[in-house]
Design brief:
Number of strands: 11
Number of helices: 3
Helix content: 10-25%
Strand content: 25-35%
Number of domains: 2
Distance between the termini: 127 Å
Oligomer: single chain
Radius of gyration: 33 Å
Order of helices and strands: HEEEEEHEEEEHEE
Shape: rod-shaped
Largest sheet: 7 strands, antiparallel
C-alpha cells in the first residue's frame, strides 16, 4: 500500500468516526427530549362550541395526543366518561375536555315519570331554566260565556327539570286564525303519576302553560289558597 492509499484509508476511517459521532449526538438529543417530554397519551379536544346543559356525544370531540406530563389531572382520556353527562358551562371550541366541565344528567327517582311538553320560549323559559332547576307550573284557562271566569291555576309545584331541548319554531294551528308562529322549547320533567296527568291535561286544554323558576333552597310549598287565581280576587 503506497502513501496515497494509506491517506485514503485514514480519511475514510475519520469520516466513519465523524458519522458515528454525529449519530451518537442525535441519539443523545432524542433521549434528552424524551426524558423531558415523556410518553404521549390520548386526550380529547372540543370541535365546536357546546352550549350549557347540552347532552354530550362522541361527535362533539376530536381525539388528540399530547405528552403525559403536560396533561391536566382532570383531562378526559376516555369518552365513556361523557356518557349520560351534560355540559356545566359553555364548552369552547379548541379547549381540552376536562371532567370538571361536565356533570351527570339528573335522573328519575323511584315512583317518578318523565314527561316532556313544549313551552313558549318567550313567556315560559327565557333562557333561565336549566336541567336540575325547580319550577312551578302554571296553566291559564279561558272563561265561559255566562259561566266560570277565566282563571290561572298552579297545577304542579316544585317540579324538577331534567332536560331542556333545542329551540323549535312552531307553525300556527290552521284552525286558529288569531295564532302566530312562535318558538318553543321542549322541557322534560320528573313528576309523580298524578302530577304527570295534571301537566298532560294542561298541555291539551289550557290556553297557555308557563313556568316560574323557584329560588334554590325553597322548601315551603305555596299556600293552597294561592293555587287558583281569578281577576275578581283583586277587586
Amino acid at each position: 500500500m503506497n502513501s496515497r492509499q494509506r491517506r485514503g484509508v485514514i480519511l475514510l476511517l475519520l469520516s466513519v468516526l465523524c458519522a458515528l459521532g454525529a449519530f451518537a449526538g442525535v441519539l443523545s438529543v432524542i433521549s434528552d427530549v424524551n426524558s423531558k417530554v415523556g410518553p404521549e397519551v390520548t386526550a380529547y379536544r372540543i370541535k365546536r362550541d357546546v352550549a350549557p346543559y347540552t347532552p354530550l356525544g362522541p361527535g362533539q370531540f376530536e381525539k388528540i395526543t399530547m405528552p403525559e406530563r403536560w396533561l391536566p389531572a382532570t383531562a378526559v382520556t376516555d369518552l365513556d366518561q361523557t356518557e349520560g353527562k351534560i355540559a356545566v358551562t359553555t364548552l369552547k371550541a379548541g379547549s381540552l375536555l376536562q371532567s370538571d366541565m361536565i356533570v351527570k344528567r339528573p335522573a328519575l327517582e323511584p315512583g317518578q315519570q318523565e314527561i316532556a311538553i313544549m313551552i313558549d320560549a318567550a313567556t315560559g323559559v327565557a333562557g333561565k331554566i336549566t336541567p336540575g332547576a325547580t319550577v312551578n307550573i302554571y296553566a291559564t284557562f279561558a272563561g265561559e260565556r255566562g259561566g266560570a271566569a277565566a282563571q290561572s291555576k298552579l297545577i304542579v309545584s316544585g317540579a324538577r327539570v331534567i332536560d331542556v331541548g333545542r329551540l323549535t319554531a312552531l307553525s300556527p294551528d290552521r284552525d286558529d286564525r288569531g295564532s302566530r308562529a312562535t318558538d318553543a322549547v321542549p322541557i322534560t320533567f320528573a313528576l309523580s303519576a298524578a302530577d304527570t296527568q295534571r301537566v298532560a291535561y294542561a298541555e291539551s286544554f289550557a290556553q297557555h302553560v308557563r313556568l316560574a323558576l323557584v329560588a334554590p333552597g325553597t322548601t315551603t310549598p305555596p299556600d293552597p289558597r294561592d293555587r287558583t287565581y281569578t281577576l275578581d280576587k283583586d277587586k
